Amino acid sequence: MATITLETLTKQFDSTTAVDAVSLTINDGEVLGIVGPSGCGKTTTLRLIAGFETATEGTIQYDDEDMTHVPPENRNVGLVFQGYALFNNMTVRQNVTFGPKMHGVRKQERRERANELLELLDIRELADRAPQTLSGGQQQRVGLARALAIEPRILLLDEPMTGLDAQLKRSLRRELGELLDELDVTTLYVTHDQEQAMAMCDRIAVMNDGHVEQVSTPADIYESPANEFVANFIGTTNIVATNTLAGAVDTETAPDQGSTQNGHRQLAVRPDDFVVGSGPIEAQIANLFYLGEQVQLIVTTGDGTELTVHCDRFDADGLSVGDQITMDVETSRIHAVNETQ
Amino acid sequence: MARISFSEARLVTEGFTLEYYEQLIVDPYYRTIAINTLWFGLATTIVSITIAVPVAHALAKYDLRGESLILTVLSFPNSLPGIVAAFMIIVLFGNTGLITNIVAAFSGRSPIDLAIATSVGGLFFAYLYSMIPRALLLLRGTYAEVNTDAEEAARSLGATPLQTFRYVTLPQIKPGLIGAFVLVFRTALAIFGTILILKSLLVWTLQIDREIAQGFNIAQASAMATIWFGFVFLFTLLALRYTSAEVSL
Amino acid sequence: MATYDTGSLSARFGRQFVKLILVTTVIFLSLPVLLTFVSSFAAQWVGPLPSGFLTFTNWGDVIGGTGVGADVSVGSSLLYSAGLAVAGVVINICVGVPIAYAVARYDFWGRSWVNVFAILPLAPGIILGIAFLRAYPDLSTSGIALVIGYSLLKAPYMVMAVQSSFQSMELRRIEESSRSLGASWLRTFLTVIVPNAKEGIVAGSIICWTLAAAEFNFSYIVYSRGTPPLSIFLYNNITNASFLNAAAAVSVFFLLIALVTIALQLVGNQAAVRRL
């Protein structure tokens, strides 16, 4: 286990800059998530940390050791791939003992270690099976056991849930979360799925276009996104000008920093920060989706702004498309946003 | 295809004497030729595959400048007939050959003594000239299907590049290697134009030509051709049975 | 710490070693081609390198023909071979396309066998040549034998090229939707399937044509008199003519291959270019 420090890490491919001066610290024992749209540089960052790409500029440190130019086999990182990348020519046990074998661990000891891990991940009975005969969830556990077998300084998970069905994803998410807590291993979790990241990570770094836009706890990122990009990427957000919400938001008491458009400050309002029923904002329902516990309303205000509003399913009783409604905003929860650099 | 087998069948159905086959089995002269053919084919096959593997590896894994030019150069000899391959070797290793003269200049010996084009060594290179591109063609297809993630997984687990190749890449390309071996060996056995010009080793195909050209003994040549065909056919069948190799070309 | 910076032996030198093999191979395969082409413009080659540039005598001998060795001009051989190869390609299209289609579209007994035999050249030129001498002794001296031989020898390349086209199409759905719209099977095949596989057919034709035009082994066994096919012309040059004349003759052949490669690239079939 180790603290990983990235310092102005930059990676250029020909003319494109995939990772642009990223500085980031992954603390000892924490689970850090990197989220962002595809092509934002998150996978390249992971590959730089693992040693499969060479940094154009900047450094990577494991504790106090400079690892920037160390080949991957000497970094001691546990890597779990999107497609698991199991060795199909070996059994499950051989997959798990491969790492220790490469590190020169004695046969008896690596067998014991593999058994322990297979036990921990509840796949002991699969030890002699061929990986291609296992289900997606089982393969993922084997991949995890294989990565953990070398007692890695950092565990790197690259979209480990892609390709699994929704229900399996939910149960694995819980198990994996508990396991990571239990193991207390420094972990980097790369995903485009912000919901996964919110549920599993201690902190989240939101990446866009090679930059880190914000690093903070999941709650903090959701409640006070640093800029428009983060606000839009994490959950659903309405970016609205203060004048649209005139009456509901006191333009004087509204947050005074942040960007402006046509002289009006831009605010980020989550769909569930609206209170439907009464209030100074008048709007017409353009569309209505029943989501289960909540109902999603797409409404158009007097000045033509389209807003996404969530309300309790009981409050939506009797509403239909075309109705005029009035609503208010929870002023304490809204905040100004900066434009994305 | 049916027509080939039909015309092949005509070979043995006419006449009906086993005299020529007997000749092939009894006469030590033919036995020597058969052994020549097999060991030379085997040796050149192994060497060309040994060279083609790292080349295919580099083409698949490394960022190379001018990769498409390299690919064109490497596949160009596939469309050259054997006689041209022989000529290429004369250009390199003949009496006035470039490499002969370079070696001569450094060692101070006469180029004529050093020219290996029309020796068995020259023939070896001539075979490689036709066979390496063929092997590459097949191995590149195999390499395209290698799971790179598994290789990276091995590296991150502490395997050096060489260990990664041995434990992860090699098992994956094994079926392709066997397929390439079968087809390249077939190619080696079928080479005729090259040997006709360089004439340095008496192999089966060259002897077939001699039977016709020097004695107009078509019957003997036919018997030899049938044996050749039967051997390659069985060899391919066996190889296909024991491997799941995807065969192309 | 120091060991981290350097890594294992194969991490440090593996890549250089593999690249060295690559470079050596590329040089081994390309150097003689370049030398041949360059020397065909030289007046003499006695030292390590050809000298006496730039002369067109060798090319003149090849193109115009001389009294000795290569006693005919390259033009007549080239034309003759081109004609024979075209005829072979026509047969290949007629036979190869249906075979490729049948294997790609239908499931029938022995399908995998047909597949294996359609793409494996069963017998090399020399064996097929003997078969011809034996089976059709009267035919063998004429061009017809060469045409049939070429088409048999190169059929696998046509089948493969067309098959790769078919594999990227959803044949069953295309065929079924066309039939449901009222087209007969034959009509479907000729107006829907074949035009869709055009790229593969064109690429296959070019490849078959080149390989047939360059075919030596079969031609050598079967050919006896008259205009020599291109490959026999090359053989006569290599064995009988002066070294530099032979270089020019071989260069003619290189140019032909280069033209064909460019043609294939224009057709846009990269895979076919590699195959060639």
In a few lines, what is going on in this structure?
Chain A has helices at 42-50, 92-102, 107-120, 136-148, 166-183, 194-200, 218-223, 228-233; strands spanning 4-13, 16-26, 31-35, 57-62, 65-66, 77-80, 154-158, 187-191, 203-208, 211-216, 238-241, 260-261, 264-269, 274-290, 294-301, 306-312, 324-329, 335-336.
**CATH fold naming of chain C:** MetI-like fold
Low-confidence stretches of chain B: 1-14, 245-249
The biggest sheet of chain B amounts to: none
Rg of chain C is: 24 Å
Subcellular location (chain B): Cell membrane
Keywords (chain B): Cell membrane, Membrane, Transmembrane, Transmembrane helix, Transport
Organism (chain B): Halorubrum coriense DSM 10284
InterPro entries (chain B): MetI-like (IPR000515), MetI-like_sf (IPR035906)
Any overview of this molecule?
The complex is a heterotrimer of chains A (about 350), B (about 250) and C (about 280). Chain A is of the alpha+beta class and about 350 residues long. Chain A folds into two domains: about 5-230, Rossmann fold (3-Layer(aba) Sandwich), CATH 3.40.50; about 240-335, Beta Barrel (OB fold (Dihydrolipoamide Acetyltransferase, E2P)). Chain A is built from eight helices and 18 strands. Chain A has helices at about 40-50, 90-100, 105-120, 135-150, 165-185, 195-200, 220-225, 230-235; strands at about 5-15, 15-25, 30-35, 55-60, 65, 75-80, 155-160, 185-190, 205-210, 210-215, 240, 260, 265-270, 275-290, 295-300, 305-310, 325-330, 335. In chain A, the strands form four sheets. A six-stranded mixed β-sheet of chain A has the order 6-7-8-3-9-10, with helices on both faces. In chain A, α2 (about 90-100) crosses α3 and α2 packs parallel to α4 (about 135-150). The longest helix of chain A is centred in the middle third of the chain and has 18 residues, at about 165-185. The model of chain A has no long low-confidence stretch (mean pLDDT about 85). Chain B is mostly helical and about 250 residues long. Chain B has one domain (about 1-240): MetI-like fold, CATH 1.10.3720.10. Helix content of chain B is about 80%, strand content about 0%. Chain B is globular and about 65 Å long. Chain C has one domain (about 65-275): Orthogonal Bundle (MetI-like fold). Chain C is about 75% helix and about 0% strand. Chain C contains 14 helices and no strands. Chain C has helices at about 1-5, 10-40, 55-65, 75-105, 110-120, 125-135, 145-165, 170-180, 185-195, 200-215, 215-220, 230-240, 245-265, 270-275. Chain C starts with a helix and ends with a helix. Residues about 1-5 of chain C have low confidence and may be disordered. Classes of the chains: A alpha+beta (about 350), B mainly alpha (about 250), C mainly alpha (about 280). The interface of A and C includes residues 67, 69, 70 and 74 of A.
